[in-house]
Amino acid sequence: MIINNFKPFNGQHCETTATGSLLQHLGIYFSEPLLFGLGGGLSFIIWNRKTMDFPFIGGRIKTDLLTQNITRHLNLKFKVQETSSVKKAWENVKEKIDLGIPVGIKLDSYYLDYFTKKFYFAGHYVAMYGYDENNAYLVDTIQQGGLVKTSLKNLELARNEKGPMSSKNLSYTFQTTNKKYDLKKEIMQAISDNAKNYLNPPIENISYKGILKASKEIIKWFKRSKDVEGDFKTTAMLMEKAGTGGALFRNLYRDFLKESYQLLKVEEIKKAYGLFVNIAQLWRTVSKLFMKAGDKKDMVYVNKASDVLAEISHQEKEAMSILLKIGQEIILQQV
């Protein structure tokens, strides 16, 4: 069963690609930066556990929240199904596909046939638009091939994998409602909400506080790492190429602000956009310094990266403060 006239979303980030594909099936077409911004996706986290050889650096909000935010702003019905039964999990998906409804799926990328570099990551998203007796037909990011397929057995394993960021065979679908939305108002609300959350992190390893913490921690990481080359070069690769859109999602948020300014003509958004142009370049500098630290195994590059991260923390706090202030002012005017 293959859904007719299905139009895949061409994206760099897995969740916006999966969700964008479901939206396009409903006739809703937005750019990837706009989807990321509507989802309030910008954040930062350094995540370190005793079982981890090297800390994880992430640049977006928690998995699952991005799509929740997007559908809320667009007044769509968002149905999520989870189950610990692999049989029921397949029935949940098959039922929708048979009705001509594409399905968003969260799974572990390790088991997907088309991934050439295998690594465990249970926070990966795809859209499914068909199946046959052997394979599931999926939409993944551009860098993973766009329209791809994987065996039904491996799909089952990927969906049922346990571990960090995993869910119980999670799948989701959208449905339109009678409620309309004002895109300009929703963009402004999304900007305000994202800025508020960013500026008020619940713990020290999130948002601008987390970036500042990372600026100090990377020096410790370099000194204790058993594989400096592998650790720093892998982190640099993840920041630039692992579905982040480059610069740890800052390119996407920068372009979202540009698109928002073009639509809203709010000067403060233009100012914040200018800051994020520079911020994105600074993140690119950090990834290059991480690569050099891995290649040369020289502390000098880590110290430089530490200084850049401290500057990024300052600039991101400034940009998000500008956005929070103007967002709240405009929202109050609209009430």
TrEMBL record:
Pfam families: BtrH_N, DUF4872. Transmembrane segments: none annotated. Residues 13-141 form the Butirosin biosynthesis protein H N-terminal domain. Residues 153-322 form the DUF4872 domain. Gene3D superfamilies: Cysteine proteinases. It comes from the Bacteria. This is Lantibiotic ABC transporter. It comes from Candidatus Infernicultor aquiphilus. The lineage of its organism: Bacteria, Pseudomonadati, Atribacterota, Candidatus Phoenicimicrobiia, Candidatus Pheonicimicrobiales.
